[in-house]
Design goal:
This protein is 47% helix and 0% strand. With 217 residues, it is mainly α. The longest helix is centred in the middle third of the chain and has 28 residues.
Length: 217
């Protein structure tokens, strides 16, 4: 009976281990975790070391409590996008509060919103880096593609050239509209690439950044 060389799970008839995602070498090897095995205890990692594939509430627990500032390891698509959904819901709530001007006079509301915003920056960065590790890309690439989010652009300038140049000013406006279009393209293109990469499935089995995420029971 073939066993996973990484975690010792039964991988009969499978190309990849259902527990840790390691590739099956299609060889009948003795279970290294069996009692009395000569190789027992020499495996470098165990399945419990693999990162978790969390659900909606689990993503908040993992990103805030377990891996708040952990840039090492890997993060599944579920972990990243569920956490991104939590962030979006938070900002939706903030926008609702801000829309009601009566609450803006309450200092505790302003202080709380500012504190929570700063509190979410680090886990947002770390889960993004771990998501890139899951697809086999270096973490610095995440920061490079996300950099337009931190650049100061005039919103009117960006929106003016966002794939729809304006020519209402005649031929004299043509250079300005082209410039606006190019600025918007440079601003938006890295974010499009970023989103596409964040949606890619993780690499099968372990890679140089760690074990593949697994679903906990």
């Amino acid at each position: 009976m073939p066993y996973c060389p990484q975690c010792g799970n039964d991988v009969t008839g499978r190309d990849f281990c259902p527990r840790c995602g390691a590739e099956n070498a299609d060889a009948d090897v003795p279970n290294p975790y069996a009692v009395g095995s000569q190789t027992q205890g020499v495996m470098p990692v165990a399945a419990g070391d693999a990162p978790e594939i969390p659900g909606f509430f689990g993503a908040l627990r993992v990103c805030f409590l377990k891996k708040y500032a952990r840039f090492r390891g890997r993060a599944s698509r579920a972990e990243f996008w569920f956490f991104a959904l939590w962030i979006a819901l938070f900002w939706l709530g903030v926008s609702v509060v801000v829309a009601n001007s009566a609450y803006l006079t309450i200092p505790i509301v302003i202080i709380s919103a500012l504190f929570l915003s700063l509190f979410m920056i680090l886990p947002s960065f770390s889960v993004g880096v771990r998501r890139f590790h899951d697809i086999g890309r270096p973490g610095w690439l995440f920061f490079a593609l996300a950099s337009p989010l931190f650049l100061s652009f005039d919103s009117a300038t960006v929106s003016a050239g966002l794939f729809i140049p304006h020519f209402s000013g005649g031929m004299n406006a043509f250079p300005v509209d082209v410039a606006n279009f190019l600025i918007s393209a440079v601003y938006v293109a890295p974010l499009v690439v970023l989103i596409v990469l964040l949606c890619l499935p993780g690499e099968k089995g372990p890679n140089k950044y760690g074990l593949a995420p697994v679903k906990r029971r």
